[in-house]
Amino acid sequence: MRRYGKHTDEDDIRVRPNRKGSRPRTHNRPKHEDAAQGMVLTVDRGRITCLVEDRIVTAMKARELGRKGVVVGDQVGLVGDLSGAKDTLARIVRVEERTSVLRRTADDNDPYERVVVANADQLAIVTALADPEPRPRLIDRCLVAAYDAGLEPLLVLTKSDLAPAEPLLEKYTPLGVRHAVTNRAELADGEAAERVRESLYGRITVFVGHSGVGKTTLVNALVPEERQRTTGHVNAVTGRGRHTTTSALALPLPGDGSWVIDTPGVRSFGLHHVDPSRVIGAFPDLEPGTAGCPRACSHDERDCALDQWVADGHADPQRLYSLRRLLATREQREGD
Question: I want to staple 110 with a disulfide (CB 3.0 to 4.6 A). Which of 78, 105, 177, 250 is the partner?
Answer without folding.
Answer: 105
